[in-house]
Structures are given as C-alpha cells and as structure tokens.
Amino acid sequence: MQTSSDIRWSDGRTEPDILSAQHEGDIVELELVARANLFQFQGHFPGEPVLPGVAQIDWAARLARRYFGIEGAFEKMGQIKFAKLILPERALRLRLEWQREKGRVSFLFSDNGELCSSGHFVLADR
C-alpha cells in the first residue's frame, strides 16, 4: 500500500476530464468530471476522498488561462467560498467569467445545480 509520503505529483493525472466546453465572449462554461484516479484525491482523505479546495482553485486558474489566453501572474484571490464537497466521478460545471476591465476572473463550480465553490482571481500589474 502506498503511503502519502510515497505519492508524487508526477505519478498521476492532475486535471479533470472536460466533457464539453461552451466559450462565448468572456464566459466559458465547462462540463467536467473529477475522476477517482486523479492525484488530488490521493490521501485526501483515505477511504472517503474529496477534492481539496486548493485543487479547485488551481483548476479554475489553469482553465481560465487556457480558455481566455491570460498571461501574467494572479496577484490575489477574493471571495473564496466552499459550500459543498466534490466527490470523485461527479459531473461538474465550471463557469469562468473574464472581467477584462477589472483584470479579474470569477469562477463557480456546481454539482447538479448546487454551488460547490466560487471566488475570483485578480491579475498583477493592475
């Protein structure tokens, strides 16, 4: 059996499966699945895995960069809320909104219409 000290980031997948993407202007809506074999579920928590909040933030930032072509560093985060646990193999929706004038990206993860997490990132150099 692998212990948490044996687990390395490079040992597994780190991003969800993207089932569909709708990109219209400064809004992207993704349907995705957090597969049970993702690195982020390892050790969090043994026997009852949940997707860590830091993974949700990481995915939102990575996917915002990918879909909006954002370069540069995010300087800060705001209004981060976690309302519902994300379990393996759940179909999720991620809504990303690029507020260009504010240099800000808002995100919202939901599961079957229920809010899981939300917040925003602000770009540096604003």
Tell me what you see in this structure.
It contains 1 helix and 6 strands, in the order E-E-H-E-E-E-E. The protein has one helix at residues 53-68; strands spanning 17-24, 27-33, 74-82, 91-99, 104-111, 114-123. The mean pLDDT is 90. It has 126 residues and is mainly β.
Percentage of residues assigned to helices: 10-25%
Counting H and I runs of at least 4 residues, what is the number of helices?
A: 1
Give helix and strand order, one letter per element, not per position.
EEHEEEE
Radius of gyration over all CA atoms, rounded: 15 Å
Average predicted local confidence, pLDDT: 90
Strand order of the largest sheet: 1-2-4-5-6-3
The counted number of beta strands is: 6
Topology diagram in text:
Blueprint: E1 17-24, E2 27-33, H1 53-68, E3 74-82, E4 91-99, E5 104-111, E6 114-123
Antiparallel strand pairs: 1-2, 2-4, 3-6, 4-5, 5-6
Q: In a few lines, what is going on in this structure?
A:
The chain is mainly beta.
List keywords for this structure.
13% helix; 6-stranded antiparallel β-sheet; mainly beta; 1 helix; 126 residues
